[in-house]
Amino acid sequence: SSGINAEWPLRPGWQRLGAKVTAIEFLGNIGGAGIDLEIAKSLQRSLTKQGMKFKLNTKVLSAERTPEGIKVIAENKKGKKEELTSDILLVCVGRRPYTNSLGLDNIGVQVDPKGKIPVNERFQTNIENIYAIGDVIDGPMLAHKAEDEGIICVEGMLGGVPHINYDCVPSVVYTHPEVAWVGKTEEDVKAAGTPYKIGSFPMAANSRSKTNQDTDGLVKVIAHKDTDRLLGVHIVSSVAGELINEATLAMEYGASAEDIARVCHAHPTVSEALKEACVAAYAGKPINF
What's the chain look like in SS3? Predict the structure, then answer.
């Protein structure tokens, strides 16, 4: 069985079930928008070892169901076309806010050209007693972001002061290994001209990962060069989605790399890799690598 798969969390799953998976990606890297490029390369290496194939900088021109299977015509950035045939085709071309059929025009709620509902800091629409949160407003379309917005929105209705730090909303790609990040990528801080330093630590040097024979991945920490304040944390690991929450909490409270580096972490745990990466960012090198 073969499949051309464009839904990231499902791709490794199909591969482990015995399918031959080819990923066609329009961008020059996997993982989608917002991923750190070094992390994207690490994930691609891991998935390639699992048997997945990748066609980057490639767009799909057409897909047609035939007696032999689903025929896909793809074209790379050099203009070279290629025909692929698969049993299953999974397509993911992004998300759009679902606002067209809500009858918003009947009550006068404004919608921007992309279908999103503009709101103020209290999540009020242009009609002050109608509020909007989650996927229909600006920002990442993530369930946990929408949940926090819902809580903060209601608190604001009751007289509270609404506040949400969108730099501290984590993202997770549920592949194996998982990928998770919060804050800025290295590309972000470079583009902004922010002075920064990097600390990283490979899972291959982490005791718990070695014991579990699950050593693919790394932790990458980005901190301000002058203040040591954490700017971004990026993780590739089988438990990245769990580890990222410590980093998110630290960043929410304005922690430095040294702050995490000086916190005692239980041994042996995968979380020690985050500590070691922070030691590397703060002190110049990790302790156990």
Answer: CEEEECCHHHHHHHHHCCCEEEEECCCCCCCCCCCCHHHHHHHHHHHHHCCCEEECCEEEEEEEEECCEEEEEEEECCCCEEEEEECEEECCCCCCCCCCCCCHHHHCCCCCCCCCCCCCCCCECCCCCCECCHHHCCCCCCHHHHHHHHHHHHHHHCCCCCCCCHHHCCEEECCCCEEEEEECCHHHHHHHCCCEEEEEEEHHHCHHHHHCCCCCCEEEEEEECCCCEEEEEEEEECCHHHHHHHHHHHHHCCCEHHHHHCCCCCCCCCCHHHHHHHHHHHHCCCCCC
Percent over 90 (pLDDT), the chain: 84
CA-CA distance, 32 to 8, in Å (whole number)?
9
Say if CB 162 and CB 146 are below 8 A apart: no
Among 2, 58, 12, residue whose Cα is nearest residue 173: 12
Place of tokens 């899972």: 203
Q: From the CB of residue 55, how many other CB atoms can be counted at a distance below 10 Å?
A: 17
Any idea how long the chain is?
A: 289
- Residue 282 is predicted with a pLDDT of 97
Q: Kindly report, residue by residue over 34-56, the tens digit of the pLDDT.
A: 899 999 999 999 999 999 999 99
Pick the closest to residue 235 from 185, 162, 161 (CA basis): 185
Q: Is the pTM of this model over 0.70?
A: yes
Q: What is the pLDDT of residues 7-19, one digit of tens each?
A: 555 666 666 778 8
Q: Which residues are catalytic?
A: 267
